[in-house]
């Protein structure tokens, strides 16, 4: 008996506890909902809106209306009592509909439309704020004075709209019922146009920014391209400097005898033109026989190092020139395969090419010694030829073993 009684007590306690917890949760949810609703109402009511009447549009319309009436009054077509409709008097009896010219009526209707259009925004605002204000006033969150002021603004707006409808009906039959609808439609079209202009302005700004960004990207890409090209050019120049051969110099020597004067030579350095200098001691030779100056445009080209092109000139004595050329070849020179091609028969060219500029000095001294020996051989050969009763023999060609 005790166990069932104990179980029943715990069951009752559990049911009561669940019910109390549910009631507490419900109250909390209701409080949260009420608080959230109150915040929304306060936020809506706290918005600063301009509900003042459009004084400029009202003044413009009233001035035009008064001016037209005064004009009719001067013409004695109306009396001062006819300015406003009397009580119970129909709009068709108004002076606006009966006496105004079409141009005057059109101008007055335009000003009335502007007046109605200027009142439309505050009509939308007051219509939207009415429910929020009333809920605040009902919940005690809005004072009696504030609520009275809001009601006064609503009443003033209603009177303004009724006056606009009456004036419209006085000017044109049936327009009083449509003037506010037309005004609302124009207002919505105007707001839609403003929104479109705003969107178009934002889109135009976005396009301008996008265009500026593309131009900046284009300039940046161009700069990067130029930078890469400059780096590539510098790299090519660097590689070219690393693989660049030794500075090439081409020297052309024309050897001839100037009687009574020191032997002269002409030297041409590549890129520096022609220059004249006194021959070194090894070239200070007194070659026998008649010599003439060689060609003016003989030159030699080498891809690396120093190249010396010597033209031995021996007028009428080719064997002597060949003997000197043989000595020059033995001294390190190189003779072309075809002797004297393009030259006179007495001109024997010999080219001596050295490996590098650094080693050119020593090799050039060796070549100078060979040339000096060739000159001596030429002189000795001349004497031996004369000793044989003027009979000429073949040119003497020393072997390379002597040098």
Automatic annotation (TrEMBL):
<protein>
    <submittedName>
        <fullName>Uncharacterized protein LOC34621533</fullName>
    </submittedName>
</protein>
<dbReference type="GO" id="GO:0031207">
    <property type="term" value="C:Sec62/Sec63 complex"/>
</dbReference>
<dbReference type="Pfam" id="PF09802">
    <property type="entry name" value="Sec66"/>
</dbReference>
<keyword id="KW-0812">Transmembrane</keyword>
<feature type="region of interest" description="Disordered">
    <location>
        <begin position="197"/>
        <end position="229"/>
    </location>
</feature>
<keyword id="KW-1133">Transmembrane helix</keyword>
<dbReference type="InterPro" id="IPR018624">
    <property type="entry name" value="Sec66"/>
</dbReference>
<dbReference type="GO" id="GO:0031204">
    <property type="term" value="P:post-translational protein targeting to membrane, translocation"/>
</dbReference>
<keyword id="KW-0472">Membrane</keyword>
<feature type="transmembrane region" description="Helical">
    <location>
        <begin position="6"/>
        <end position="29"/>
    </location>
</feature>
């Amino acid at each position: 008996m005790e166990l069932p009684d104990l179980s029943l007590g715990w069951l009752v306690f559990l049911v009561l506890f669940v019910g109390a917890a549910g009631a507490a949760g419900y109250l909390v949810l209701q409080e949260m909902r009420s608080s959230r609703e109150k915040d929304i109402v306060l936020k809506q009511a706290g918005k600063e809106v301009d509900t003042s009447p459009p004084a400029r549009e009202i003044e413009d319309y009233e001035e035009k209306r008064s001016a037209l009436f005064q004009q009719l009054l001067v013409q004695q077509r109306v009396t001062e009592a006819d300015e406003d409709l009397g009580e119970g008097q129909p709009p068709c009896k108004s002076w606006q509909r009966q006496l105004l010219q079409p141009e005057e009526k059109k101008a007055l209707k335009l000003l009335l439309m502007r007046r109605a259009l200027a009142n439309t925004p505050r009509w939308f605002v007051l219509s939207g704020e009415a429910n929020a204000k009333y809920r605040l006033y009902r919940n005690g969150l809005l004072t009696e004075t504030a609520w009275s002021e809001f009601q006064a603004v609503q009443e003033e707006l209603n009177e303004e709209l009724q006056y606009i409808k009456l004036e419209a009906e006085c000017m044109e039959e049936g327009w009083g019922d449509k003037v506010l609808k037309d005004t609302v439609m124009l207002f919505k079209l105007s707001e839609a146009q403003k929104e479109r202009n705003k969107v178009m302005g934002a889109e135009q700004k976005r396009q301008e920014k996008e265009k500026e960004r593309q131009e900046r990207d284009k300039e940046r890409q161009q700069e990067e391209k130029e930078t890469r090209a400059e780096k590539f050019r510098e790299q090519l120049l660097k590689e070219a400097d690393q693989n660049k051969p030794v500075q090439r110099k081409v020297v052309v020597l024309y050897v001839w005898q100037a009687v009574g004067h020191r032997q002269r030579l002409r030297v041409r350095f590549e890129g520096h033109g022609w220059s004249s200098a006194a021959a070194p001691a090894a070239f200070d030779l007194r070659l026998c026989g008649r010599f003439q100056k060689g060609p003016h445009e003989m030159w030699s080209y080498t891809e690396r190092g120093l190249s010396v092109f010597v033209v031995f000139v021996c007028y009428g004595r080719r064997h002597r020139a060949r003997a000197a050329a043989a000595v020059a070849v033995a001294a390190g020179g190189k003779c072309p395969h075809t002797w004297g091609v393009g030259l006179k028969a007495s001109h024997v060219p010999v080219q001596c090419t050295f490996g590098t500029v650094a080693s050119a000095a020593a090799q050039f001294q060796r070549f100078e010694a060979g040339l000096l020996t060739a000159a001596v051989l030429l002189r000795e050969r001349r004497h031996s030829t004369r000793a044989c009763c003027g009979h000429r023999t073949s040119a003497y060609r020393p072997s390379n073993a002597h040098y």
